[in-house]
Amino acid sequence: MKIKLAAHFLLLLAFSAFMLSEAETQLKPHAIESFTVNYIQKFGNCTYLVVIKTSCDSKNFTRDRISIAFGDAYGNQIYAPRLDDPFTKTFQSCSSDGFQIDGPCATDICYVYLHRSGLDGWEPESVKIISPNSSPVTYDFNTSAPNEDWYGVNLCQIHPPPSPFEPSPPFPFKPPPSPPSSSHQHRVPGLFGLVMILGSILSALL
Q1: For residue 18, is pLDDT > 60?
Q2: Bigger pLDDT: 61 or 97?
Q3: Where is this region: Disordered (predicted)?
């Protein structure tokens, strides 16, 4: 009995470790070929603070051209080309650079991609995005970004479509009530009234 319990426990640990490793693999940055950048930005009325930390393994300075795109799961994308500036020594090794980027108001930032173009092999360590509508998020890179490819992390979840509308069954038909009698209409006499009228007619005939 104890041997069986120990075996089940080991299997559970192995399964948990496998699931954790899979989750970590999914969180690692990756290159994407089908990523579409909205070069024509929507009307932007939100300002984001983006802090990019350069890895200490990167060169002292870089001439690479660096762009960024991030957004939420609802199509709100913020795109900023050419964050680099060799004259101000942006993206130096072991340094952090902050940028204010204007764009459409997103809800929860769930993806970020960097684009590097150049031969210096700039290496980002992390990207932190402070949004006015959600909590700050930080994405770890810790690896050299490939040249001429969008590279990053996507944690967006696809939301299921709403349930199809099903109209409720119709209520049983009830005819509307009869309209009230008008003032010029005579009331129908009751049984007592009919007897009185017939009695008057008979008295007149006799």
Answers
A1: no
A2: 97
A3: 165-185
Distance between CA 4 and CA 97 in Å, rounded?
A: 56
For 43-154, CATH number out of 2.60.60.20, 3.40.50.670, 3.30.70.100, 3.40.50.720 equals: 2.60.60.20
**Best CA proximity match to 157, nearest among 74, 73, 35:** 73
Instruction: Find out whether 32 and 151 touch, Cβ atoms under 8 Å.
Output: yes
Distance from C-alpha of 92 to C-alpha of 56, rounded to nearest angstrom: 9
Within 13 Å, how many C-alpha atoms sit on residue 131's CB side?
Answer: 24
User: Is the whole model's pTM more than 0.85, yes or no?
Assistant: no
Q: Which two tokens stand for residue 100?
A: 């204010």
State the average pLDDT over residues 52-67: 93
3 state DSSP class of 4:
helix
User: What average pLDDT does the segment 17-44 reach?
Assistant: 51
Measured distance CA(163)–CA(174) in Å, rounded: 32
